[in-house]
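quick q for whoever's on today - can somebody do inverse folding on this one?? i tried earlier but teh output was garbage lol. tokens:
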């Protein structure tokens, strides 16, 4: 069987953040204490997150309803951090930083990958016209849960998204401050 190799990875990944009100303190705390915050799927902005289909065989298997319920629970437990390959993408600045008033945090890709715990996954998003298909016996409950949060419709492909996916929501620690390489201020941010 052939294997998938990835030879080209970005040197940096970028996290766009609102800093309105007290949110600036939340973001500074995360940088200072060396973590990214993993949100649950129901806290993400796309209501279609986690959509999936099941194969005909999956739907006919005894226990398929129980496994689907387990996948839903596992998906709700995941901590998800959305990152982009681009720091200068105007629509992303507009959507995720209060109309260019927030910040964009640059993470060194290799350092972040090296410094996250081994149970954390860094996933390049897949974009398509149809939700992924869960197949009976092809993945564990955890793998199927991660599959459902690793795919979006092609209408979101402009985000060039990668995700940090942790088994639990909350603080996802990295080891050194050198994971953060820069912080960009939005063009409408009053200093």
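ok took a stab at it. sequence:
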């Amino acid at each position: 069987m052939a294997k998938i190799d990835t030879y080209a990875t970005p040197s940096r990944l970028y996290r766009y953040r609102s800093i309105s009100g007290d949110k600036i303190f939340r973001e500074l705390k995360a940088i200072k204490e060396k973590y990214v915050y993993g949100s649950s799927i129901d806290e993400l902005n796309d209501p279609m997150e986690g959509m999936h289909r099941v194969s005909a065989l999956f739907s006919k298997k005894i226990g398929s309803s129980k496994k689907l319920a387990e996948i839903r629970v596992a998906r709700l437990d995941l901590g998800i951090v959305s990152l982009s390959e681009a720091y200068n993408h105007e629509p992303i600045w507009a959507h995720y930083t209060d109309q260019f008033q927030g910040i964009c945090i640059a993470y060194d890709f290799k350092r972040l990958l090296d410094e996250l715990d081994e149970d954390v996954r860094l996933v390049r998003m897949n974009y398509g016209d149809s939700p992924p298909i869960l197949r009976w016996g092809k993945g564990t409950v955890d793998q199927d849960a991660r599959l459902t949060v690793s795919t979006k419709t092609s209408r979101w492909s402009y985000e060039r998204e990668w995700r940090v996916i942790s088994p639990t929501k909350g603080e996802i620690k990295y080891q050194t401050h050198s994971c953060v390489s820069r912080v960009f201020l939005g063009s409408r941010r009053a200093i």
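fwiw Residues 12-185 form one domain. also DSSP finds six helices and twelve strands in the chain. so keep that in mind when u check it
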